[in-house]
Batch of 2 targets.
Target 1
Amino acid sequence: DLDAYYSEGRRLSETLHRMSPMPGLENVLFPGELEAEREKDFRKHGIPLNPDHIERLATLGDEFDVPLYWE
């Protein structure tokens, strides 16, 4: 039953997140949870780029007459 499956998943998630994390860690996470949060942040704020990478993209934009969308 699909409803029971999702209910059990929510119960497991709630139980896991109530657990005390290991020393030095902020919280307990499921596998893939950190990556899902990172993806959500990237979608909202964009993917952070190294300044050298940004500079190279700007150089290529100038070379091929492509305007920089971030300016």
Note: The helical segments are 2-18, 33-45, 51-63.
Target 2
Amino acid sequence: SYDRFDYRESTAFLIGNEGNGLKTETAQLADTYLKIPMEGKLESLNASVAAALLLYQAAGSTGRFTLEQEK
């Protein structure tokens, strides 16, 4: 699952489109496959939403950014 992956190493994301995902040739280049769990009857997430979730998780888990309340 995407929230358990160690993003501290160099990481690149391959994100396919909503309908077809990645081409087989592209998917085979990946070292690891991550899954974003979804509830309900959703077939897939919009590619930009999936990318945003992954980038947000990666940045937060590596300490590259923190959510701080403005004063």
Note: The radius of gyration is 14 Å.
